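Have a close read of the entry that follows and walk me through the local backbone shapes. See right below:
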Amino acid sequence: MDNRKKTDVLNRYFEYKRIWDKHRYPGENTKELLWSQQLKERQLRASRHQRKKSQEAKEQVLSLMAMREEEERAKEEADKEAYEEEVRRQQEEVVPPPPPDENPSDDESDDSEDEQKDTNGLPVH
């Protein structure tokens, strides 16, 4: 400060102000200081409360998502079991056709004789 020129008035003012602001008298602006401290404390409490609420909401959403996933898995398993049961039931119900006869010509001759007997009521030769 001793080396400052007389023309450097603005810088000298800010330097004096900085020095003056360093020195506080006891009790000076105590109300203002108390209010600013209380305001800061309120803001801190509010931000903590907000963080706590957001954390609780996040946990609630995650638990709901987990419950939905569990319900979907249970539903898929039930659907899969029902499908498998239906397939088993269908496989049990399916009766394989009888094997084909080895002599189809014999069957035809028997049928033709049966037809002749039926139409006349008497055996036809």
